[in-house]
Amino acid sequence: MEEIFEEKNEEMKNEVVENATTVVDEKGFVVENKPETLPEKEEIKHSCKKDSSICHWIVEGVLLLAVIALFILHFTGTNKKSQIVQKPAEVGTGEVVFINIDSVNEKYEMVKILKDTLEAEQQKQEVVFNNRQKALENKAANFEKNYSSGSLTPQQAQYAQQSLQEESARLQRDYSNYMEDFQARYAAALEQMADSLNAAAKRVNASYNASYIFSYQDGGQLLYADPAHDITNEVIEELNRSFKKKK
């Protein structure tokens, strides 16, 4: 038995010699298992320096993802205080009603007043510009007569011709400015009437709750409108009533 025991101790000693990380006592028993040899400090520093840039970008990336996540949660998260409860729109009856624009233009007081005012102003300005045009034509005729008779010196003829050209250009410019201003005022009047018509139609439709309100004119694309769905007279009454309040 002692011989067998000694042989086993010899084998264990040999294994100890081959594995430098194992510590044994004098009798050959293992007393401590040391970890493998740690790298030197310089090697550790070198490794950290090598990977420091990678670590830096990883940390920056994690922080960026965290900021994005907070941003998304801020704008998409449920916040009871900021929630707005929208009242569902009232469903219409599906009915269709009509308004005759020709009747509105004929019976709406504001249309008649604006139309009469603009027409009167236009006629007045046309008279003014026609008179200026005739005066210019008379000056041009006199110039031609005097120039043909030789009663004008070259200097007088040149001055008279230049004066006629300047007056003609001024007349054209004034008429062009007047027409631009008139068209702008006319467009503003049409817009004002359209806004009034839309507002009156909505007020009248409050009692119908129709889903659609169409306008039509005689000779237009609409060939027939059921009189039972024609709200023209009611809209005209509403327009005139509102217009009298504003006067």
Quick summary of this structure?
The longest helix is centred in the last third of the chain and has 52 residues. The protein is rod-shaped, with a radius of gyration of 51 Å.
Strand content: 5-15%
Please give the domain count.
2
Q: In which order are the strands of the major sheet placed?
A: 1-2
- Helix and strand element order: HEEHEHHHEH
Number of strands: 4
Gyration radius (Cα, Å) is 51 Å
Structural class: mainly alpha
Topology readout:
Layout: H1 2-18, E1 22-24, E2 30-33, H2 41-76, E3 96-100, H3 101-107, H4 109-149, H5 154-205, E4 212-216, H6 232-246
Give a structural overview.
This protein has six helices and four strands, in the order H-E-E-H-E-H-H-H-E-H. Helix 3 packs parallel to helix 6 and helix 5 (154-205) packs across helix 6. Helices cover 68% and strands 7% of the residues. It has two domains: 2-33, no CATH class; 96-246, no CATH class. Residues 1-5, 12-25 and 27-89 have low confidence and may be disordered. The chain is mainly alpha-helical and 247 residues long. The protein has a two-stranded antiparallel sheet with strand order 1-2. It has a two-stranded parallel ribbon with strand order 3-4.
